[in-house]
Amino acid sequence: MEKIILFAVMFGLAALTAKGAEAKENWDSQCAKCHGSDGKGDTKMGQKLGCKDFTDAKAQADIKDDAAFKALKEGLKSDDGKTLMKPFGQ
User: Fold this and answer.
1) pTM above 0.90, yes or no
2) Handedness of CA 89, 26, 69, 50 (dihedral sign)
3) At residue 55, what are phi and psi to the nearest 5 degrees?
4) Residue 47: CA atoms inside 13 Å, Cβ hemisphere, count?
5) Which of 5, 12, 68, 84 could join 76 in a cystine, given CB atoms 3.0 to 4.6 angstroms apart?
């Protein structure tokens, strides 16, 4: 019985580690060029596009899950129709 529990815990940790690595890879390849590796949005492109500082508590409080998912799925455009963030529909 202990071996089964140990195996289940190890399998669960391995799955979590894989998902964590995938999320970091996605951030590094898709998000960091504008939002920065630390999420502050202080890259040259991030400043040009007006990216929010995701490390700021107020900025985080203003972000709602449904709006974040919609932005990722559909992208973001400025009021004049300029693409600010391309969609990541997957």
Assistant:
1) no
2) negative
3) -85, -10
4) 3
5) 84
Tens of pLDDT, residues 22-68: 888 989 999 999 999 999 999 999 999 999 999 999 998 998 999 99
53 Cβ contact list (under 8 Å, min separation 6): 39, 40, 41, 42, 59
State how beta strands 76-77 and 83-85 pair: antiparallel
Long-range CB pairs of 4-10 (<8 Å, 24+ gap) are: none
Please tell me the distance from the alpha carbon of residue 65 to that of residue 42, in angstroms, as a whole number.
Answer: 23
Beta strands in 1-90 (DSSP E): 76-77, 83-85
Structure tokens at 52: 């929010």
CA atoms of 31 and 24, how far apart (whole Å): 10
Distance between CA 89 and CA 72 in Å, rounded?
7
Pull the structure tokens for residue 1: 């019985």
